[in-house]
Amino acid sequence: MLILTDLDGSAAEALDCRVRTPLVKSGLTKYTRELVDYLADLLPDPAAVRVVESRAWSAAGDWDALVLIDSAPGSQYDALLDAVRRRGRPPGAVAALALAGRDFHGNRGRPWQTVRGNLHLSCQAPVDLDLGRCAAAVPAVAAVSVSEAIARLCPQAAPRIKWINDVLLDGGKVAGVLAAAQSRGGRLITLSYGVGLNVGVTPSVAPTVFVPRITSLAAAGHDIGLHAVAVAVLARLRANLAGLADAAGGGSVVARYRRLCGDVGRRVAVYAEGLPDATDPADLPPPLACGRVTGLDESLQLLVEGCSQPLSGGRLRDLEPRL
User: Fold this and answer.
1) Strand partners, 273
2) How far apart are CA 315 and CA 275, in angstroms?
3) Which of 82, 111, 163, 246 is the most buried if burial means most Cβ atoms within 10 Å?
4) Global pTM exceeds 0.90
5) CB–CB of 178/107 below 8 Å?
6) What is the DSSP letter of 312?
7) Is 111 exposed, middle or buried (0-12, 13-18, 19+ CB in 10 A)?
8) What angle, 0 to 180 degrees and rounded to 10, lies between the N-to-C axes of helices 226-243 and 250-260?
């Protein structure tokens, strides 16, 4: 894996990735130059970035390039989306990880705290997939991958997905994910994902009706290093992205999402997606649906008792505590 990094000294120790004494590449092939050029806008100071090779990330899967920096000047997820809009498909599967940064966000621009010690990861991959066959799986890939990575690192943990894109641990939100896709002529050509995972630090976030509690792996009793978490998440993302092209296509990811979803059987209220956070339910308009979740259909739409139509989107509020 090609690594573009500005880490040295104590910053590198946070990832235990031995990037302090890397082999600096003396020359770049045409392909690696294309990767570097594509990722240039993710670098806070391109002149200070080294292009290196490191075996410490080999277990992360066959990603072609990784941007690994101390502090991102803006959302790396947004930068990747901008890159694909301006340049077209990326030349390879790329990822970006920042120890800290500014202006990171969750779904619909909702703020996400970047705290040192936690995982701030974005990635992008060129694909050639049938849109109709894989449409339901595309937004599910990141949540499934994060949940599976946590379960592999912490066998005693039981992560659960909260519809649509939150990952919970012991009832508290431990991660949130973003997903975007570009298509052409009925084919998916690029998939992009963002992952925010609380590893060593539980951010100080005021509770809302949609996210009443935040947690971290450390707070849940799982002492896992940031590097190990990053490698595990990247490995599951790469494997699940590759699996979309298999015979089962998106069906395998959809089936695993349904198994990991912790909402079935619970009483919930589902509100319109664009609503802001609120601390009092009285400040919200009437929900789209209110009742017990009876399941998820094959498109991962939510089925709620008393609701005549499956829900394809929305913000889910629990009407009973999660344990």
Assistant:
1) none
2) 8
3) 163
4) yes
5) yes
6) S
7) exposed
8) 130
